What we know:
By secondary structure, this protein is an alpha/beta fold. It has helices spanning about 15-20, 30-40, 55-65, 100-110, 130-140, 150, 170-185, 205-215, 235-240, 250-255, 270-275, and strands at about 10-15, 45-50, 70-75, 80-85, 90, 115, 120-125, 140-145, 160, 185-190, 195-200, 225, 240-245, 260.
Amino acid sequence: xxxxxxxxxxxxxxxxxxxxxxxxxxxxxxxxxxxxxxxxxxxxxxxxxxxxxxxxxxxxxxxxxxxxxxxxxxxxxxxxxxxxxxxxxxxxxxxxxxxxxxxxxxxxxxxxxxxxxxxxxxxxxxxxxxxxxxxxxxxxxxxxxxxxxxxxxxxxxxxxxxxxxxxxxxxxxxxxxxxxxxxxxxxxxxxxxxxxxxxxxxxxxxxxxxxxxxxxxxxxxxxxxxxxxxxxxxxxxxxxxxxxxxxxxxxxxxxxxxxxxxxxxxxxxxxxxxxxxx
Length: 278
């Protein structure tokens, strides 16, 4: 797509995917795509930032035509950033793999599902309901391994703990692993009501906003971010205009400058773009 990039007021729009850009059925509404196309044609930049595996984020970007110069995506909650035009990894900040086993052990003592990742694949030791749910919901392949320590040859971008029954046990786990995380330079937060993430300390979606502003000379006052979950709070706060979609929980809305009237199933992203960009 040919963009008008000569404007000095062009905006940088950072979007979460699940619960924000796509519907609950994981489809991109036509009105969202149309609004994004118009924004890019006017010279504005769009970046996707998600907790998903990076290959899944890249696939969503391609569906939107976000694969030419100036298009970037963040996966694993900001642990990795990729230039979609060159497919170059701009930066990667993984979890040192020696921490995976201790974290898994603490979760498994509570009967919780544990998983980590390669670039396109979920890696777990357990063939359970949680991995089937996760893989089906996000259309992401998975691999069952006998020993995660022996299998991992590279540091993974994050670890994830899942409980299909809700957040209660995950919150107990969160409090249990917090001392270990703080001692070893890790951070933990929810990317979904039933997903508890562990990443390297300092990893967040907000880091991508700073990187792209510097790279493209975009004033901070022209940054917009939109999301729905706890892992979106960092970029909602970092952007000049932080937006929470209507379906976001109250603790996320509390950090937003604007809360949409529409939810993710009714084109909340298009609402933001038409109100503040076009």
